[in-house]
Request: fold
Amino acid sequence: MALVEVEAVSKSYPRRVGLHTELHPVVEDVSFTIEAGETLGVVGESGSGKTSVARMILGLVEPTAGRVLVDGVDVATASGEELHRLRRQMQPVFQDPYAALNPRMTVREIVTEPFVIHRIEGAGNRAALRARAVELLREVGLDESALERHPHEFSGGQRQRINIARALALRPRLLILDEPVSALDVSIGAQIVNLLRRLQRDHGQAYLFISHSMPLVRYLSTRIAVMQNGRLVEAGDAEAVCASPREAYTRQLLAATPELPAWTDSPAGAG
Reply:
């Protein structure tokens, strides 16, 4: 059984057309799986439905049709306790590294909040939580001097490292990475991409990596799913999809950015 099974999911939202309200589809009949420890890259232009699929996996919105199974459990119909358990196993990292952080909380509070929310044993032990926060920050290239500072005191790349540290706190089996470097400068994005590769080697999480950049998806992914206008138009092994794309749309994405950026092999710093 795959870690994630997306089975013929569709999602529509009501839209006002003149005097009437019509359902507007944003995702139509999309199916794929994510195996434990692999990276599935989902690529497509803005508005192709990538983020909507991610939100259905996370249980933030319900499919209009179809279903999403995580660890064999239907996310949309899971009980409160089941959903709470599932959310320990899958954590998001969003596009905007500042909007995702509470500006009133210190870094220590941010990265240890998951232990409190999920009632992890020892969550009331302040010294133990601080030690765990230091460990998480070091994993993402920051040191303990960051603990009592607030998000506005950090650069965009450092904020994204904090987001990643928080996502890793509970050692989830799946990270959902929604355009995690698109808001960053190219060189800083390179550092985050290489950090993500190292973390996956160290901990073995599966990634759902969402991007509009085909070379970036190719660099990080085991398999690639190409979305256009809410539909999955091509999927397969990453190298095979990029070397011999079947669909004209996939060829257009490849032609738009034909070369793998040289910065993807740069060392991970602390930008």
About this structure: The mean pLDDT is 91. The chain has one domain: 4-100+173-265.
